[in-house]
Design a protein that fits this description.
Helix 6 links the parallel strand 4 and strand 5. This protein has a 7-stranded mixed sheet, with helices on both faces. Strands 8-9-12-11-10 form a 5-stranded mixed sheet, with helices on one face. Helix 2 packs parallel to helix 8 and helix 11 packs across helix 13. It folds into 2 domains: about 240 residues, Aspartate Aminotransferase, domain 2 (3-Layer(aba) Sandwich), CATH 3.40.640; about 140 residues, Alpha-Beta Complex (Aspartate Aminotransferase, domain 1). The longest helix has 20 residues. By secondary structure, the protein is an alpha/beta fold. The chain has 13 helices and 12 strands. Pyridoxal-5'-phosphate binds next to helix 3 and helix 4.
Amino acid sequence: MSPNRAPQTIAAANGIATDSAFGAVAPPIYLSSSYTFEGFGRARAYDYSRAGNPTRDVLADTIAQLEGGAGAVVVSSGMAAIDLVLSLLETGDLIVAPHDCYAGTQRLLQARQAKRQVEVVFVDQSDGPALAAALARSPALVLIESPSNPLMRVVDIQAIAAAARSAGARTVVDNTFLSPAGQQPIKLGADLVVHSTTKYLNGHSDVVGGVVVAADQADVAALASWANVTGVTSSPFDAYLTLRGIRTLFARVERQQRTAGLIAEFLHGHPAVPKVWYPGLPTHPGHGIAKAQQSGFGAMLSFELTGGVEGVSRFVHALELFVLAESLGGVESLVAHPATMTHASMSPEARHAAGISDSLLRLSVGLESEADLLADLARGLEAISITALS
Ligand SMILES: *Cc1c(COP(=O)(O)O)cnc(C)c1O
């Protein structure tokens, strides 16, 4: 595809009408595990689907173009994507990770550290001196998550990637919360981008998948080789569904983040909501950086309620549209209580240190009518004030 096409066009049209067998408009799904040789000693482009698969390759090429990378490797989950990045390291290499990183990532890094495969230091990357001290230890890899989960902390990707480069480290950005429709870390200096494609890229809550995008072709080759060695490549069917999801990525994200902005404003002014975390609010500490490095503010937000755990319970119970579930980025709106759900594996002290109170709720805003979603939240808030009066 010509290199100057807009990302919206890449998402909608990459791989369309390229089928040479029957002229299929949608790229066909190739489920076959193996491929015939053309003749003795004459291999074709594909031989075995763990190593390479045409359906998976269209998806990889599409995501690589959307992120502005040299190539991508599509794997079976977001965790597999992050673990695949670790295959670029040597034993004992140091990783600098955010203190508030995704809980599964924290578990993975700590488990690999316990096996003495890597060293890990968790730092608040918005704390300049703390980050500088970690970089002075000559890390091999710096992991960034921005915006972070669940408080939507935003860090300056360009500045951290430049500092990491000076320290001799690669930078990898987990871009799951925004998708390439909201942020392109390679353009900001990152070497690698990972996604849980389970979230916005697939967008329909029916696939668990992941991808690693690399800016450098040599990294793409090394990652593809390791993915084949360890067998973490995704199934063709999951790749097919994820590509189908990406067709509407920009339309979904545009609409979802517009509704999220309206919800953030609504909650921000409500007496039962002491705090709202959404990068689109001018009061958000990361608003300025988000405005500079993102192309949208995303459709994730979190907020605190009055009334303690009882208030949270009343609120969630009164909701009819927001479904109480983990995960994010789908067409349906979800509400999660980090303290008892996504962040339950953290100790209460660690949660407190990360700023995650028992009154905090996180929303993933979907594609339902904004009026219906606002009415649903109003219903929840109403249920709290009834409690307060009784
Ligand atoms: C969900 C998620 C992951 C893990 O992805 P899976 O597909 O569940 O393995 C990693 N990072 C972030 C930010 C996530 O939201």
